[in-house]
Amino acid sequence: MKLDKYIKTSLARQYGVLTFTIILVFSLLVAALMIYENSILDNFDSESRKLEVKETIVSDLDYSFNLAISEMRAYFAYKGEETYYNAVLKQRDKVVGKIEELESVADTEEDVLFIQQTKDFYQYYFEDIMPKSKALYDSNQEDQVYQIAVNQNGSDTIRTYQDNIKKYTTKLEEQLTILKDEQRSKIALSQTLFGVFLLLLIIAMVGFVRKMLNNIGIPLNKLTLAAGQITDGNPILFTDTSNRQDELGLLSSAFEKMTKSIQDKEQDLSAQNEELLAQQDELQAQQTELEEALEIAQKRELDLKRRNDLVKGIANTLDKQKVLDSIVQTMCEVIGADKGVVVVMDRTHQHASIGLSSEGVEQFIHNINSGEIEKLKDLRKPYTIKRECNEEEKGFHLAKSYCYDLYMPVLSSSGEMEAIMVYSRYSTSFKEDELVEYDGLSKQIAISLDKIHIFEHSEEERLLTQDILDTINEGIQLIDVKGKVIQVNQKICDIIECHRDTLVDDSYEKWLSRLTNSVENKQELKQFFDSILIDGKTDQSSFIYHQHSPANRVVQVYCEPLTRAGEKFGTVIVHRDITKEYEVDVMKSEFVSTVSHELRTPLASVLGFTELMLNKELKPERQRKYLTTIYQEAKRLTALINDFLDVQRMEAGKQTYDKKYDDLVPLIMNIIETYQVNNPSHTIHCDIQTSNTMVLGDKDKIGQVFNNLISNAIKYSPDGGDILINVFEEGPNLNVSVKDQGLGIPEDAIHKLFTKFYRVDNSDRRRIGGTGLGLAIVKEIMKAHEGDVFVQSVLKEGSTFTVSFPLVIGGNLQDDKPHDQENKGKVNVIIVEDDNSLANLLQTELEESHFYVKIYSNGEEALAAIKEEKPDAIVLDIMLEEKGLDGWEIIKELKAIDEFKSIPIFISTALDEKEKGLALGANEYLIKPYQPSKLSKLILQTLLKKDWSGQILIPSENGDDNK
After folding, report:
1. Domain 656-806 adopts which CATH fold?
2. Kind plus residue range of the DSSP H or E element containing 187
3. Residue 906: closest CA among 918, 897, 896, 898
């Protein structure tokens, strides 16, 4: 009774009991179904695994039997190779194992029958046929083996067994299929039963729920009806006779009490309601006033925000374009304009726009000094224009509509019109009070533009000052009284090896640390700066420091104070690179010392031997010896003086050269012979590796080159040794190298070797005489001969000096040609050019260079002449005026004929199609206009590089020809 009362007093408990009952029944039903299906699945898994194991064993048996048969056949096929028979025995063991496995899982009559068949076949094959066949085969009775296989039905027995395997496998598959079908039918049955029970459960649940809903719904309907009557103001007498003990019973009692209370207070509530209605009308009137005030305030807030945006946009940047963009965008928002433009009234007409096309802006700027703009310049205040909208502005509107344009000047502080603004809006005109407000905004814009103008002017001056500083070769620092860097130029950044942005604003300690890190005498430099910048001393105005990185240099630094109105506000520090002056001073000192030694030594010998000859009576032999010594020392002095004079003439550009074609080999051999006689401790070898040893040059100056190189090789090999001279070709150059086994040259001295008066600074070389001019003279002579000199050296192993001349291919000079054969043997050039003036100019240039020239303007005539004469070179224009062959076709036809494809072709044209010309086989491609001398040099250079099979005469300087 207590439990029943406990449930009836609560709707939640009643629904809980119902829900719990349904869940419990449903859970029991699901559990029963799952247990049944799991038992079916377990049984199916067990049976299917057995069948799968049998299938696997049968498959392995089949494979092992087949492999054994195949290996046995391989044994017979490969003449009794034991490897294959051993493989058969291995498969036999596997068969035995598989039979045992199959016996362990056999549980049907078919399994037992198949095992028996397998054992019989095993007995037949492995214990009867196979040993017998092997024995017969090993005894060379192959016919008997054949008889076993054919006549004794050995193959039939094998096939019979294979059929048995197939049948057994099929039987296993059928059993597996049957097992699956049984499993599916059982599961289907269980699911059907589950569905039936579930349907019954749902029907029962629906019945219970409907009964409970009726118990709840009927009282609720009564309460709803009573509530509706109360709402309509009808008096009711609500009674509940259900005598319920749950929440609905309590609710009915409470509702009955509430109904009585409502009826008692209805009159009071009606009076209060009338009073509230009156107050509501008053509040609505106040709300309307507040909404109007709020709308005005929001509009003013929006206007203030837009003006604030305008001020911020023009005040937060000094970029004029950004300011203009901000002006036109914000002003359009403030004014409510649909489009607008602002243009600066200077020569650049820098502008910004919104809602306008680029063509419209260009048109506006083009007409900026006419029409309405002139009116704005005269009025100097905003004005508006009303006009009818054009088709582009009307869009899809068909009715007549108007557009209002606002023209506004931006006046600078000096009263000049700095910019103009034009804004347009549709349908709404501009009022006078708006124009006054917008005029105030334009003054704010003018202030911003004035500020930008001042900034741009100061920035231009700053950049100009910086550019001027950067052009100065001295490093310059401007620092304040605390030592902080204010401004620098590029040279000081190169000296300190840092970027300008990182150096500016550096403190005194920081930039001084940067500088002293690369200075040798850093402590003295720091003391100098401390005394000037910190202590304020002025007794020492400059200092010299030696820098080792980023380059070895000597720098003089001095400081000058900056004052304004008598007060110091900073210091200018100047760093002057005096490396060259320092090196010149050192070089001068060394030169004076060297020259004094070089001149005094032979003079002492001359004076000493002369004094002896004047003061003493000497035998003729001794007099001759002394005179020879005096003569040699005098020649030495002459050579020294000549070296000084040669250097002076070369530097002044007054050195003259008598250039002729000459063979280097005889010249080198004569010099070698002279030095070999006078230096028996050295062996000089000469290796000539080319027959093209002709050069165009001054014989005496070239001899001076080899004299200096061979002399240095002997002089700087004080212990003797071999000196090897090689003459060889390298590309377009004829090279001569002089290699010694002497002292060698330090790596850091190689780049200074060809500097005048320079000598390597060590004790080994100081004992060797010399002025340091020889290699400088060699460098200048080779430069005058369009050549060069190189050096390779390893310290204490020797050096190799190599001079390089332009390669000239030719033979002996022919100076005695008959006059009537003047053109015979010259380089024959055909010019194909339809411009007579240019053709004559090229002919004159080539004939002055001693070429034999013919001119053709027609393509067919030129091609015929080329095939007839076979010239040495062709100068060809591409576009020919007369109809017929053009230059491209001539090149293609010549290059297709083996006899003419080797003739050099030089294209002379106004067409810029160099890649096509070179691809077709042209040697050079000259684009008009060009210097005619360039053509003659290219032809000569190309012919000299080419290894001709015939004889070609090369023009010489004096008008003669070389073969």
Report:
1. Heat Shock Protein 90 (3.30.565)
2. helix 154-232
3. 918
